[in-house]
Amino acid sequence: MKKLLIIIPWTGFYIDNRDCTFASSPERAPEGVVGLATYLIRNGADVRIADTLAMLRDNCGNVQVTLNRLWEICTDFRPDVIGFSFFTARFEYAAQIFDDLRARYGTSNAPMFIAGGVHPTLLPQVTLQYLPLDAVVVGEGEYPLLELLGGKHPREIKGFFLPGDTRIVKADVVKNLDDLPVPDWSLIDIAHYTQPSYQISNTVLHRAMPVTFGRGCLYRCNFCAHNCFLQARHHSAAYFIHKMQQVAGQCGIDTFIVQDSSIGNFADEWQQVCRLLIDMGSPFHWWANLRVNQADRQLLLLMKQAGCIKLFFGFESGSPRILERMGKRITVEQCRRAAKLCHEVGIPFYTSYIINYFGEEEHDLQLTEDLIRETCPTSLSVNTFSPIPGSVDYENHIHLIAPYINTIHDWTRLGMLAAPLRFGNMPEERFNYWRLRLRSLKQEINSHETTP
Ligand code: B12
Ligand code: SF4
């Protein structure tokens, strides 16, 4: 079998950043890549992960030192294939690393260079335009990579997209997630990722690891790319409990981030998970995302008993008109009800909002402020809208975005939700006023999280 090195690119935040402490600026551990590598290894492949994000942090933001270290890994491991894994926010940094490696390898003895993940899947041609790779993989990586490492030519493998190709064929998805092994976290630096961090755990510090119950989402909100290629599926309850136990043992933690789109998408199965946890004496703390229309008292009571210490809701806007435009399929009344239930049941809850949406008026932002004040979440985040690749809004408004995309850095800005585009109906100074005003509510209300 061929040898594969998967590279996780860094993010711009850490470049030259000597001061960042883990508690203020951490990352969540990369479960997707670690799970993928574990699957390939269990099937006989020799795979390593070069987590340049953790490496750059350890090197106090020094890119050159990190690239030298990466080169040492390459010369020591001698991979046949180097695969980059990235979403749009890290496109630019994947290119930076690729350019460096290509120059170091020269033309002879270079491994095959490929890429996979959200961005190469959504935009294979754009990926190849900026990164002259040998191929990209469209869709889930498990099956195509196993075939490649087993010796098949990429042309014969479903999911591979090569330079010059015009037809995109997605790789087959893993239908039964229970067929996948539990991620082997020893493939990356466990100690690094289990440091307590505010970014990971918000207002109260926890040592927590991610754990995914299902892939994809049942919804398709216009601004979101969550189900861009991941068909919705989930583990069985028994497998998921086994996964939690294994990860807790491997990483020495008892707290989990259930990073699914919404655990309410699979409410019956999630209740089974909760009952199994309760039967075990609720040994773990965990938090998860939930859509407001899926919140009900019974579910919340059960989840609390099963170790749920907080919930995350996308309230998105206090304006019914804007919610409608977003295709979110929730109502302001459902937001109020979800908040009320959390207060009554005693589960801290975090809400997020999107501003700068199409046709937004100051009046809509006032309604969002009213909703925040009325529902009094434990904490909140206010995100500026950008139409990210993979979303309906990207597909429908590419003509508005295209003039602003001239370099690879512009792609990264778009992926970071930082495109310099205003979609609301108000002058820039009024938009800035509202952004600061809504964000400042976080300080006002963020004083009452209950620790478990
Ligand atoms: C967990 C997560 C995070 C974690 C990342 C943890 C980590 N280190 O991996 C955190 C919280 C840090 C994060 C941050 C952000 N995220 Co995020 N995140 C996710 C989430 C919810 C799950 C990712 C996941 O594990 N998926 C499941 C696994 C199985 O899929 P996967 O990782 O893509 O891997 C599979 C394939 O892609 C492929 N594959 C992956 N790598 C490779 C490599 C090779 C070589 C090959 C062949 C195949 C391959 O095989 C894998 C197994 O099947 C996704 C939603 C989603 N649907 O993916 C959003 C998502 C990726 N995030 C998104 C966004 C926008 C962001 C942020 C910009 C948000 C923000 N406001 O700041 C930031 C960017 C931060 C940064 N600077 O990089 C968008 C990306 C859209 C896009 N076009 O890029 C998504 C799709 C969510 C959404 N709602 O739209 N995110
Ligand atoms: S916003 Fe939430 S519910 Fe809507 S598509 Fe994205 S993950 Fe699914």
Give a structural overview.
With 452 residues, the protein is an alpha/beta fold. Helix content is 41%, strand content 15%. The protein has 19 helices and 14 strands. The protein has helices at residues 31-42, 52-58, 63-77, 91-105, 118-122, 124-130, 142-149, 190-193, 198-201, 237-251, 267-279, 297-305, 320-326, 332-345, 362-375, 392-396, 398-401, 408-415, 428-445; strands spanning 3-8, 46-51, 81-85, 112-116, 135-137, 160-161, 208-211, 214-215, 233-234, 255-258, 285-289, 308-316, 349-355, 379-384. The strands form three sheets. Strands 2-1-3-4-5-6 form a six-stranded mixed beta sheet, sandwiched between helices. Strands 7-10-11-12-13-14 form a six-stranded parallel beta sheet. Helix 15 runs parallel beside helix 19. Mean pLDDT is 95; it is low at 448-452.
Please state the structural category. Answer: alpha/beta
What is the fold-level CATH name, i.e. the topology of the largest domain? Answer: TIM Barrel
> How many distinct beta strands?
14
Total domains: 2
> What is the rounded Rg?
22 Å
| Strand order, largest beta sheet | 2-1-3-4-5-6
- Low-confidence blocks of residues: 448-452
Q: Per the principal axes of the C-alpha atoms, what is the gross shape? A: globular
Give a concise summary.
With 452 residues, the protein is α/β, with parallel strands linked by helices.
